[in-house]
Structure formats: C-alpha cells, structure tokens
Specification:
The complex is a heterodimer of chains A (306) and B (325).
Chain A (H helix, E strand, L loop, with lengths): L11 H5 L11 H8 L3 H23 L30 H7 L2 H28 L2 H14 L3 H12 L3 H28 L2 H8 L4 H9 L4 H24 L11 H8 L8 H37 L1
Chain B lengths: L1 H5 L2 H28 L6 H6 L5 H10 L6 H13 L13 H36 L4 H15 L2 H13 L22 H31 L2 H8 L4 H39 L4 H11 L2 H29 L1 H6 L1
Classes of the chains: A mainly alpha (306), B mainly alpha (325).
C-alpha cells in the first residue's frame, strides 16, 4: 500500500530526504536551538509566548470581572471599557484576558495525551513487524475516518460538553496522526544493526523502544506535535464557537466570537479581539512547526550530501 | 483467492483496497453504534431527558429495539442503514433521509464549488512557486500560505464577514440561509463567502505539497534530459514535470476533500447555510442521536471512498508504482 501523508500534513518533505545509515539521531534540544536561528521560529515563539502570558497573567490584571456588566451593550471603545462592551454590556478587554486559559489548557493536555499514546502505538507497531503492526494501523485508519471535529461532536452529543470529553476526543483524533509519523520514522531504524545487537544482548523491549528507537524519531515527531497543537487549539475554539464549550458561563475566545458575531456591524471589537488572539496563537504554533521542519530537513540534506 | 488478488496487477490492487475500505467502514459502523447506542445506562432516558414519562420511555425503547440483545440491535441498525433506512429524527419527528436529503444537496454544491476552485488554483500556485523557486512569488506565497494554513476556518469565515459583509464593506451577504424548498444555485451570492472560506482552508496544504513535489521533480534527471533535448520550457513543465509531480498531491487532495466534510460543520454554522454540517451542529445541540449516527457514518464513508480514489489515482499517474504491482 502507498504510505499516505498525514492528513493536512505539509511535512512530508522532511521524510523525503534519505539519511545514510549509522548517523546518530539529532538531539531534540539541538534541533530546537538550531531552529531558533530562523526568523520564522523566533516570531512563532514570540507570538506563542505573548499569548500564553496573556492567558496566564490576564485574569490577574483584568480591569473588570469577565461577567460584570460595565455599560450599555455594544458600546464602542472608550471610557471604562478600552475595547468597548459586548452584547451583554460586559467589558471586552476583561473577557479577552480571561478567555484564553481554558482553550490553552485543554489544547495542551489533549495534545500531550495524544502525543504519548500515539508515540507508544507507533513505536510498538514499527517494532512488532507482524500482525500486531497491521491490527494497530488499521485501528488507526478507523479513527482517521472521522474528521477531527466530527469525532469530538459525536462524543459531545453522547456524553455532554464536559472538559474531559473534549480532551479525550481531541487526544483520540491526535493519536493516529502521531502514530503514523512515529511508525514511519521508526521503521527504517528498526532494520539497523544496533537494534539487532541490542536484541541479541537481551535488552528489554521497552528499553529498545524508548531508549534506542524514540530518540531517532524526535525530529518528525516535534514537527507533527506542533502541527497537532495548532489543530487542537483550532478545534477546541471551534467547538466553543459552535456552542459546545466546557462551561458556557466562562469567558472563552471561541464563545466570544459566536456571541458577538451578529453585532459586528455595531461594535466589531467584541468579535475582532478574540479573533486576533486565536489567529496569533495558531499562527505562532504554525510558524514554530515550520521552523523545526525546515531545520530538520536542512540537517538531513547536509548529512545526505556528506 | 488472496494469492491471486495479490498478483492480480492493477485490478487486483483496486479490489484489495476496496475490501480494506469496506472492513474499515464496518469497524467505523461498530464504533458509531457503540458510541451512540450501546452506552451504559438507558439511551431512551439519555435522549428524552429526566422529565420523560414512563410511557414515552417504554415507547422509545421499543422503537430503538432496546429490548433486543445488543448484537441484534446492531444488526437491525446496520441492515436498516444499508437499505437506506436511517431511522427517525428525534427533534424533527421525520425520517432522517427526508430531513437530510435537501441538506446533502446544499452541502455537495458547496463542497464541489470549493473543490473546483481550490484544486486547480493550489496546483497552479504550488507549481509556479516551485518553478520560480526562491524568487519573490515563491517567498511571498510560501509565507502567506503558512499563515493561512494555521488559521482555524471559523476565524477565516468571520474575518471574511468583517471585510466583505459588515464592518469594512458590504458587498456580499453575511448570512447564507437558503429558503426551504429552493436550491443553492438560485442564490449564487450566498455561496461566495462559504466557498471562499473553504478554499482558503484547503488550498494552502495542496499548494505546499504541490510545491515540494514539483521542486523534487524539476531537479530530476528526466526533466534535465527533456531540457537538454531543447524542448521549450512550457512543454517540459506541462508534459514532463506536472504529471509526475501530481502523484503525491492526489493523496493530499483526497485528505483535504475529506477534511472539507468536517470543515463544513463550522463554516455552514457561521453562515447559517442549511447543509449537513450545520445539521450536525443542530443535531448535537438537540441531542438528536439518529441524525448524529447517520451523519457520522456518511462522512466516514466519504472519507474512505476518497482515500480509495486517491490511492488508485496515484498508481495510475505514477509509472514507477504501476509496474511494481
């Protein structure tokens, strides 16, 4: 069968360069350091840093509470409300400062969970080289048959919009995409001599998986992980936008856009402010991913030329 | 039988992939059924809520065949599905097929327009960027596509509404509610913004893969050979480079069309466009499980079919893979 590129994955050019056998793996820290030489990675880190800071510090410096009415609904910026008020007369700036936390935390936990489970499944599948590989990867195909947001919607429809449901659903859709990348990166390594010699020496399987195989897959995995983080943020914000946030009373960037969309013509800031926040955040994670991908591809290419 | 299929060349490959696709769909149906109907607790109560009377609970249990063993429930549901009987919508109290029929037409029109615009456009952008590598068009388009690719589609949609339908200018309608009984093609202006959003959501990926694939092909020996033969650059690009560069792109196109099937949930809801996407959102909010089941199965089937087509198309355009079978 043809190895399919991960969905929505612009990273296949990383794998296109063949690395000669026997080259030591790129260390994750050195890959990160080198990628920071690129301006796009620096801008990405700056954007993500700013937005994370905003989400963490925001609630402490907000001039008003997120649900406190401070004026006439949909009043334009000025006076007590720097960014104006929303459809209920709440302060847009304060809601913006409160509204990032839940999205960021949910996205981070969901992506991390999907990453860990996906890496384990991908490495086990690559190392097994037997029916287990087929079974695991077909199971991944089944999950991949649902677009990310569809699986989250089914889960929410059945169980309800609880935070853990959204985390598990997003993690579940992250798993097969990570597993494919991990398996793809690990397959050529499994064939190398040092794995065979480790087996011959009786090294435990889990040590082979995580000490010998894992470091060799970190480059592509880091690229995929930042891509998945971008998507998790997008899907979680989209769920809130669709009216399925974990807590409808809480300020949330996705919810804010939906609430104030109809009043765009009167007071645009209620929707524009959270839009800018989400756009800068996903652009930041996207730029970081692209920076790492370019760096990894560059290192591979220079090694291939040696 | 399997051995013959294994060596069956191209048609054997298609049959094998078809079988695999059917197996995946069967597994998907089990997952959807298990998730929506075989949950612990009483589905009838989950659907009707706490205020339901014992009589209505009993009636719904009978209707959902909840008195039967779980396997026979699944069998009834699956065979109904195959015969086109998708059950009854709990919110609208009419058959799911009647409910979803017009919505399916609306969504198909929207997705088809988006695909027809975005695929040639992104192939052209990607090829041109590869052809003019490291030149100004390439640098500009790569960076723009990178940024656009990172934006969630509802952000793109609302930005388009701000720019073209409300705050900045009002050249297009910001909501696209198709009146019941009419067809979307009678309201072309309603289709512009939703389709544009989907194009912006999908084109960056296809264009980026196209560029990467084209760069590789342009550096290959046979393109060099064609150039050395003295063929005009236009012929080299269109006749020699493009067909070979398209191979890997088919996969990405298929995945992105499948992605459109999920993207319409958000985009149709933003524009209040009555399709299966906004239907899914309503069904989730209303807890209308038969509709959720039907739409999840439908979208999964579309995904599996598109993947199959992509695999076949890749084999057909790539001579190297064709001979390997």
């Amino acid at each position: 069968m043809i190895p399919a590129a991960g969905p929505e994955s612009p990273t296949s050019y990383v794998a296109a360069v063949t690395v000669p056998l026997g080259t030591p793996p790129i260390r994750a820290t050195s890959l990160l350091r080198r990628s920071l030489r690129l301006w796009r990675t620096r801008i990405g880190v700056l954007l993500v840093g700013l937005l994370v800071l905003l989400a963490i510090v925001g609630p402490f410096v907000a001039p008003h509470g997120p649900s406190t009415p401070v004026g006439v609904p949909n009043s334009l910026p000025g006076g007590k409300a720097v960014l104006g008020t929303d459809y209920l007369g709440q302060d847009v700036l304060s809601r913006l400062l409160y509204g990032g936390r839940s999205i960021l935390i949910t996205a981070l936990i969901a992506t991390a969970l999907g990453l860990v489970v996906g890496v384990v499944i991908g490495l086990v599948a690559a190392y097994a080289r037997n029916a287990l590989d087929d079974v695991l990867m077909r199971a991944m195909d089944v999950i991949m048959a649902f677009p990310q947001i569809m699986l989250a919607l089914v889960a929410v429809a059945v169980v309800g919009p609880h935070a853990w449901v959204i985390v598990v659903a997003i993690a579940l859709t992250t798993v097969p995409r990570i597993a494919r990348v991990a398996r793809g990166a690990a397959l050529p390594v499994v064939e190398r001599d040092f794995i065979a010699s480790a087996e011959a020496m009786g090294v435990q399987r889990w040590r082979i998986l995580f000490v010998d195989l894992l470091p060799n897959t970190l480059g592509p995995l880091m690229v995929e992980a930042s891509l998945r983080m971008t998507y998790s943020i997008g899907v979680i914000a989209a769920l809130a936008f669709l009216g399925l946030s974990t807590d409808p009373n809480q300020a949330n960037w996705g919810t804010m856009i939906q609430e104030n969309q109809l009043d765009l013509a009167v007071q645009p800031w209620g929707a524009v402010a959270p839009i800018i926040a989400i756009a800068l955040l996903t652009m930041g994670t996207g730029l970081i991913g692209d920076g790492i991908a370019r760096t990894a591809a560059g290192i591979d290419r220079s090694r291939g030329a040696e | 039988m399997l051995a013959r299929l294994r060596s069956g060349g191209f048609s054997g490959f298609v049959v094998r992939r078809l079988l695999l696709g059917l197996i995946v769909l069967l597994m998907v149906s089990i997952v959807v059924f298990a998730a929506t109907q075989a949950l612990p607790g009483d589905p009838a109560r989950a659907i009707l809520g706490r205020s339901a009377t014992p009589a209505s609970l009993a009636a719904l249990r009978l209707k959902l065949h909840l008195d039967q063993p779980i396997f026979s429930q699944y069998w009834t549901w699956l065979t109904g599905l195959l015969r086109g009987n998708l059950g009854t919508s709990l919110a609208a109290q009419e058959p799911v097929t009647t409910l979803l029929g017009p919505k399916l037409v609306n969504s198909s029109v929207l997705v088809a327009i988006s695909a027809i615009v975005s695929i040639p456009l992104s192939i052209a952008i990607g090829s041109w960027a590869a052809f003019r590598r490291e030149k100004i068009f390439d640098t500009l388009s790569s960076n723009l596509l990178l940024v656009l690719a990172a934006l969630p589609e509802f952000v793109v949609a609302v930005v388009l509404i701000i720019l073209l339908a409300t705050t900045v200018s009002q050249v297009l309608p910001g909501t696209s509610t198709i009146p019941p009984g009419s067809r979307p093609w009678n309201f072309p202006s309603y289709l512009v913004l939703p389709a544009l959003t989907l194009v912006i959501a999908v084109a960056p990926y296809v264009a980026r893969i196209m560029r990467a694939s084209m760069v590789e092909v342009l550096e290959s020996d046979y393109v060099e050979m064609a150039r050395l033969k003295g063929l005009p650059e236009r012929i080299v690009l269109i006749r020699h480079a493009l067909p070979n560069a398209l191979g890997p792109v088919f996969q990405v196109i298929a995945l992105n069309l499948a992605y459109l099937a999920g993207g319409i949930v958000v985009v149709e809801t933003v524009f209040n466009y009555g399709g299966i996407g906004s239907g899914m959102q309503e069904a989730v909010i209303n807890h209308d499980l038969p509709v959720v089941q039907a739409l999840a199965m439908l979208i999964a089937a579309v995904y599996v079919a598109l993947n199959l087509l992509a695999d076949v198309a890749t084999i057909m355009v790539t001579p190297r893979l064709r001979t390997q079978l």
